[in-house]
User: What shape does this take?
Amino acid sequence: MELTRRIDNSLYSRKALADTREAYRPYCNVVVQPESSGSVSITVTVKGEYKAQARQVALEFWNYFLDTSCEQSLESV
Amino acid sequence: MMEEQASISAFYSGEDDFGVFARISVDPNIFSETAVLKTAYWFTDQYYLFISKRKETGLLEVELRLKEEGTSIDKLKAACGEFCNNLLDQEIRQKVIKETSVVRDTLIKKAFFEAKAPLTVKVASNESHLPNSSQSYKDDPVRAECSDSWN
Assistant: This one.
């Protein structure tokens, strides 16, 4: 099960993506594809052994990513 | 396969492989990006959220999903309403922070400056009268520590 989303670099940070990717490395594979200026396409594919919890893993990945981005951007305000 | 339907108040609901979702459009001219992020941050413990920006319109889109699968759209609608209320609250907080930032900074600066500044008057302290181990409060000639009733 995979979930592809296009993100805006002003909302989600690159560092947050790196942190999230690292945290979810055991559960899913992440493919990052740069798109037009200021946006990136991210595909999250849940690993086979977690297929039963695919929805939870994929959506938790995005929540973690959002949380980390918020923390980082609000720290700098 | 994705099906979507629009309602009057810029609230969209639909369903995809990950279940039911709702989407709220937020005008960045009314609500700041910071307010949206702060509100979203508080909602991630109860809902799955995703924020995107529409290039054409500049609108921010907040997508909400319930953590439990197979829940009704009404519950999601209520969550969106709650999100909008919190967003308004957060936006007002941001405005108050902006309006009072000068006063707050001045107060903080003053507090830190006073704590850091050296004492202007010398403290009247004479430590030559500190008792040594052989002395007791009973030897105090002034007997300041003892009331008459103790004697």
Observations:
- The first strand of chain A starts at residue 2 and ends at 8.
